[in-house]
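Lab notebook: predicted structure, single chain.

Context: the supervisor wants predicted structures on file for every construct in the current expression panel, including those that have not yet been purified. This is the next one on the list. No modifications to the sequence; it matches the entry in the shared construct table.
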Amino acid sequence: MKISYNWLKNYIDIEMPPEELADVLTSLGLEVEGRETKEQVPGSLAGVITGEVLSCAPHPHADKLHLTQVSIGEEAPLQIVCGAPNVAAGQKVLVATIGTELSFSSGEKVTIKRAKIRGEESFGMICAENELGIGTSHEGIMVLPPDTPVGMSAKDYLGLEEDTVFEIGLTPNRIDGASHIGVARDLAAWSSARDGVLSCRLPSVDAFKPGNALGVAVAVEAPQGAPRYAGLTLEGIRVGPSPEWLQGRLRSMGLKPINNVVDITNFVLHETGQPLHAFDRACIEGDMVKVRYAVEGEKFVTLDGAERLLSSQDLMICHAVAPMCMAGILGGLRSGVTEQTTSIFLESAYFNPVTIRKTSKRHGLKTDASFRFERGADPDMVPYALMRAALLLKEVAGAKIVDAPVDIYPHPAASAEVMLEWEPLFTLMGVRIEKSTVKTILQGLECVTLAESDTSIIVRIPRYRVDVTRACDLAEEVLRIWGYNQVELPKRVSASVASVPKPDPEQLRADMENLLAHNGFHEIMCNSLCPADWYESLSAFPQERLVRLLNPLSSDLNAMRQTLILGGLEVIAYNMNRQQYNLRLFETGHVYAFDADKQEQGLKAYNESPRLAIWMTGSADQQPWRQAACPTHFFNLKGYLEKLLGRYGISLFDLECSQAFGDIFSEGLQYTLNGKVLACMGVVQKKLLHRFGVKQEVYAAELCPELLLKTLKGKKITCAELPRYPEVRRDLALVVDEAVSYDQLRRIACRCERRLLTRVGLFDVYRGDRLAPGKKQYALSFVLQDAEKTLTDKEVDALMSRLLAAFEKEAGAVLR
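Prediction complete. Output recorded below exactly as produced.
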């Protein structure tokens, strides 16, 4: 939400600079997330000064140029070459001095430099309107009145404004602060706890005089959806561009001016927080406005040109025949104000927040109006905003008020009444302050005292504070205004520390993230919401197991992710489109799944579990200057997965290995522990890469930290002294069938010799003409070591014979 510093000063006399005001607003809970300085003219014409043309003579070498001497209030005049046909001696002008940066009305930017034009030096420029960016005229230089002082900055002479716009991160409960008057009220309350010099003032509407003619009739057929509905008919309107002051206010909010009628409704919205809507009276059939719920399946074309299928729960503003507007959200295409509009029906209402929120989500529409209505607008602001807008329309559009305002409010909303007990208040605040100070703050918050005693006070809460209903809410308000920073910390702070599970899941996650970050990986964070289309035709993650959203914001965010891998591919595509081809990425997050077999068990049918994903693509390292870059390979990723699991004492060889799911990986491995998948990794399918727009190979892995954590709980850490006796290595070249894997041979070796065999390695694989069809050769290394003595050749040979016999028997291996 944006708040303009200059606009805010219309409602409260603040003298503090914007920087200090930002700190105050943040302390009040209206956190300032950013500040932007807006200038009426870019650069505020710094370096442009009023001057007087002392002399003007023809340029000696150019027919259409003039050689002038211009005084800008300094000792010596400036010589300036000017090509304007209307320049003459005695004129008061605006002069851009050397070094000045000008932004032309056309958008072109120019820096004024010392120049030599046709042999004559020029030390500046006499400016036209378009060269200063304050107009479009370029017929000649801008000539000022004769009494203009010389040497005055253009900013001061033209009265150019500078404004600071605050970007406020408004929390959902503070909708009362979603306007300039709302912020001014908070500042006045803040002042009441200090010097009390600031007060919030609302623009007067005393000049409002109702008409006595017949206007548009109103019928509220859905009072539960529109507890308060007001309207006013105006005529004699001249639709056209808004005055400059109004356009400036809207631009400061990031809005584009449309016309004077629509701009006034937007102005009042940001001034008071009350949304308004203007209907072209000529489009209101029967001269009757009805507030009703839509007919199920009824069609309606909104202002954005989209045809929407309505629900019977959608509140609509209609004429005698058909809908004109989605109440509190968006107008219709055929009932809005146009250049031909001369009479309007102006709406100001308080709509049920739940009704507006549900319709907004159902149709995926978010507007400034729905933002306020669904959080709870102020019903008391309805008539004031209506009269305020009517007076402004009289001023800027020549409107005439036809009738008295229609205000249908059958059941006025009750204000909350809260009893605040003094001792519980001070205990909750953590500080004891004077009761008189609390009363002053409550008065500044526009709370009305109903009763008071030595132990408590009862106050009525203003209706615009929809979030204050309990004593604890009011205590928070008092402390917020008094100042959190004024609460002193005690000398001793005690805290109860909750027991931390061992091993700690958060510590495990942080350790894994740090290990990857230290190895050159960059962390990414993807949205847990994703398109359901991602999982189309994926057997590994079928669409039937998707957790779908009932009211998705869009079709791109209509399901919860089942795997982290697909979101990472989207990130890789995004980076590749920006010439980043060598990527190492990781993400920790949650995945979600639905089990239809458990649907009758309620929430037990839904599963949420943590995952860690890793992606590698492009070059394995930065390109060295002496050789070509080495592309990332499957085994680079496998190495990092081994390192990650090895950090916790788990070897991939201790896990059961099988082929990974084929619709994700073209080549891949899946590691299971006790029948559950601990990790999977592989080369991502080219078909899948094509769907995400990735044009190079990607290697990905996904790990289940939850299963890893369970494994660590039962794992004991042991230590032993370093071996004092040497290790022995022996190699075997074995010819085996293609179906035999290295993992099978390694497991056979480990079963055959548990005490002396410390490592098994594969250092070569051969397939060729010298082997029979369907055969391959594995070259294996075996490292043997005895912790108590040096192994003899006889012992080693005997062990190797046992290993060879086991290979022959269990795997059909033949020594080559």
